[in-house]
Design brief:
single chain, alpha/beta, Rossmann fold, five-stranded parallel β-sheet, 18 strands, binds adenosine-5'-triphosphate, binds magnesium ion
Length: 472
Amino acid sequence: MSKARVLIVDDEYDVRETLAGLLQSKRGGYEVTTAKNAEEGLSLAEKIPFDHILCDIYMKPSDGFYFLKRVKQAGIEANIIMMSGKADSDMALEALEFGAKDYIHKPIVAGQLFFVLKRVEEAARLRQENEQLRTQVQEKFSFHNIVAKSERMKRIFGVIEKVADYKTTVLVTGESGTGKELVAKALHFNSARRKGPFVALNCGGIPETLLESELFGHVKGAFTDAIRAKKGLFEEANGGTLFLDELGDLPLSLQVKLLRVLQEEEIRPVGDTRNIKIDVRIVAATAKNLAEEVKKGTFRDDLYYRINVLPIVLPPLRERREDIPILAEHFIKKYNSRLGVTVDGISQEALRLFLVYKWPGNVRELENVIERSMVLAETNMIQPADLPSQLRNAEQSSEASAPVPGLDPTVLSIKQNSKILEQALIKRALAKTRGNKTRAAQLLEISLPALLYKMKGYGISNGNNHLQEQAA
Ligand SMILES: Nc1ncnc2c1ncn2[C@@H]1O[C@H](COP(=O)(O)OP(=O)(O)OP(=O)(O)O)[C@@H](O)[C@H]1O
Ligand SMILES: [Mg+2]
């Protein structure tokens, strides 16, 4: 390790020499530079990255305060320790308010000097450590309030950063409670529009008749209740982002109108004859499968293609279980301060249940479960007994349903179950070998005639008859 660098600024020759001698004699030692006044000290400090600067308060022509102020202005990061005589001892305290890290009284004795230096070094080390921890926590596990560490979510953070600044419409899909609204906000606050408004509308929550005027506004007298003109949400969101939540619930009649707005970037308030130019970035979200809705005829295909330019698909929580512990920790912190309780964490057994449970309500359900258990918790750790019954039973139900799709957990007959298992394995082997029966038979560790016989018995065709049978 290289020696720490110290600058001594003092107008008395004796003080400089004594201090330099003490510092150099110390085991491990310091690399010492001296300056005989504030100006000289300043020009040295601008050139050399000192770790510490020991500076006299009472100096001529400029005093230690002048030096301190100039060092801070110059953005020099060294720890400054002020030295004061008897007469100016309360000025030392004052210096702390101006950014000095510590002070020491003259006459300076070795013990005192090294004690102060050690204290300053320790504080600097802690500061640095905290800084690192903070950035690590933020970088790794949180992005605009979205807490996650799974690869899939981190990839989504990357996508958000990349697309935030474009005006292109983003469609966020995912099951209920996966964080679609959080993503919409992250897109807004990560874009150049962050100073503009973020306006949200739940397309499913409002009667069709009101929705149009809600979106586009209306003029006075446009309909019976329109006693005064009203701005629509598109106008409210001008220069910012309009979040259209539950877009899949938008009635067909309004889908046409929305499509027109997206294409022309202008709106026409209900009852108005003129169009208004708007500059709005649309983020839409839906828990529905819009492609399915298009097939069913409840969602227009032209709007779907226009909206689905940049899709962001949020995985359900059960497909990113590595996020569960840090999400739980995040919510425990949140509700500790909200509920005024002090829960430290989750017991091992409770966490195990969290990890096997399916979380149909995703992160929202996790948040609710944590809040509820924190209210009920008898100790400072959340225990299985504090959890709702669906979680307490998670283990049994997951064991029963896990092994093979189609297996009936109430049927215990080996004969019956092994037939189901056999069929599943054959289908899997055929899929894996893209219908190559010779290879499939090898994977299944049975002969080719045995495979063909079983396939016929179960009525399995390989579904890839056009593929030529190749001898492996
Ligand atoms: N990754 C996450 N980190 C922290 N909080 C999250 C995360 N995902 C979701 N949440 C929280 O869970 C709740 C539900 O999130 P959000 O409202 O964004 O979900 P959603 O997908 O819009 O759900 P819905 O389809 O039901 O409207 C919110 O309280 C949100 O703050
Ligand atoms: Mg939502």
